[in-house]
Each structure stands twice: as C-alpha cells, then as structure tokens.
Amino acid sequence: MKKLITGLVLLGVVATAVAQKDDSSNDALLSNGGIESLRGKAQLSETRESDKMKRVLKDREVVERNYVHQPPVIPHQIRGYKVDLNSNKCLSCHGWKYAKEVGATKVSPTHFETRDGMTLSDISPRRYFCSQCHVPQVDAKPLVKNEFRAVESLSHK
C-alpha cells in the first residue's frame, strides 16, 4: 500500500512539473483570439489604460423616458454632491420643500413608500441614495448597437 501511495505522489509531482514547464499553454488560455470586446483588443493578461471619463452634459432639458417606471437621468453635473447617511445634496433642490422655488423636478411620491406599501413623511431609506437608480447623462457613443424601442404610449414621435 505504501508503494502505491508513494507512486501516486511521485506521479503527481512529475505531472505538475511538466505542466508548469509549458508556459505557452497558459498564454493560449489567456488569449482573446483576436476578438474585440468592450475592453478593445487588449489581451486578458494585459492591463490596458483606462478610458477617459465621459463629459457630463451641462444643464440640459429633461431627457424623455422610454418605459413606465424608468428612473429619469440627471440632466446636470453631480460631481462633488455629498450623499451619505447624514446628508443628501440632491434633496436640497429636489425635495418637496425646495423644488418649486429652485425650479427643480420634485421627488416622486413613490420615493416616500416603504417596501410594505406604507407612506412615510420623509424619503424612504430604500430610495435615499439617488445614484442607485439615477445617473447623469453623458456625451458618449453607444458601446453596442441599441435596437430598443420606446413604449408607444410614451413616444412623442
């Protein structure tokens, strides 16, 4: 029995050494095969330079929505806005108390509802962190072809 175990261990050591000797086989596994992905043509084993940050469009008109319950995109810059457990910069304009005087869209009534359907007097904790759903509109070309069509009843065309 000892000879069998010793033989199997020895076989494992030899097989590991042979597998490590051929480094080119690992390169073949990491190769993207010349296919261009969203990363470009960079190989998986390479670290490529990151893309430049997209330019956020300055104070635009409200962007039209394409489906029911679609979170609206943010038509202005939000870099530097503080949104944490203690404060939410977005609510200083979009809160019901201030929206009319600053001319901002006020927070939807759905943001005051809990998961159980109760209506609160303030923003629901599950809707407090705006950037979970709402993102700034940027000047960027589509990464992939988009064949999405808006719901007809929402289309203004």
From TrEMBL:
GO terms for cellular component: periplasmic space. InterPro entries: Multihaem_cyt_sf, NapB. Its main location: periplasm. Heme c 2 binds at residues 111, 130, 133-134. Residues 1-19 form the signal peptide. One of its GO terms (molecular function) is metal ion binding. It is found in: Periplasm. It holds the Pfam family NapB. Heme c 1 binds at residues 76, 90, 93-94. One of its GO terms (biological process) is anaerobic respiration. Electron transfer subunit of the periplasmic nitrate reductase complex NapAB. Receives electrons from the membrane-anchored tetraheme c-type NapC protein and transfers these to NapA subunit, thus allowing electron flow between membrane and periplasm. Essential for periplasmic nitrate reduction with nitrate as the terminal electron acceptor. Component of the periplasmic nitrate reductase NapAB complex composed of NapA and NapB. Belongs to the NapB family. This is Periplasmic nitrate reductase, electron transfer subunit. The lineage of its organism: Bacteria, Pseudomonadati, Pseudomonadota, Gammaproteobacteria, Alteromonadales.
